[in-house]
Design brief:
- By secondary structure, the protein is of the alpha/beta class.
- It has 2 domains: 67 residues, no CATH class; 62 residues, no CATH class.
- 28% of the residues lie in helices and 23% in strands.
- It contains 3 helices and 6 strands.
- The strands form 2 sheets. It has a 4-stranded mixed sheet, covered by helices on one side. Strands 2-3 form a two-stranded antiparallel ribbon.
- Strand 2 and strand 3 form a beta hairpin.
- The termini are far apart.
């Protein structure tokens, strides 16, 4: 059985001409499982997701894929640097005095389209656009 991970950050980071595992907690915990079972990791692709939206890892004998999503700077500021880091991360780590809840952390981004899908996670792992997640067709 393969695994699907939806997270804010990708599990790999660029080093030189290649990619190496990231050192974050989720990546450290789940990369060995993905390498054993196979699967896919879906996340914000940071700098070059538009030109490199898909990675197969490890390169010599791929066991899983990383789907890297492009997000405009405003969404990164509101969702990743805002809600994820200043609301969800402190809540998940019981640092209640650091929790910030602000409406501007998740600016509306419009409806998803075939050209620009917006993944939504019911547990809030990728808090990109609450209005987009709730929209029905």
């Amino acid at each position: 059985m393969s695994l699907v991970v939806v997270a804010n950050r990708e599990p790999l980071r660029r080093e030189g001409d290649g990619w190496v595992p990231a050192v974050g907690g989720l990546a450290t915990a789940l990369l060995p499982v993905l390498e054993r079972r196979g699967g896919v990791w879906v996340a914000w692709g940071e700098k070059d997701a538009g030109s490199l939206p898909l990675l197969h890892y490890p390169p010599a004998a791929p066991r899983f894929a990383v789907h890297r999503l492009f997000l405009p700077p405003r969404e990164v500021a509101g969702s990743y640097h805002g809600m994820a880091n200043r609301t969800l991360w402190p809540l998940a780590h019981y640092l209640l005095d650091r929790v910030e809840i602000r409406r501007d952390f998740s600016p509306p981004t419009g409806r998803p389209t075939a050209a620009s899908p917006r993944p939504c996670s019911p547990c809030g792992t990728i808090p990109m656009s609450p209005s987009g997640c709730r929209t029905t067709t």
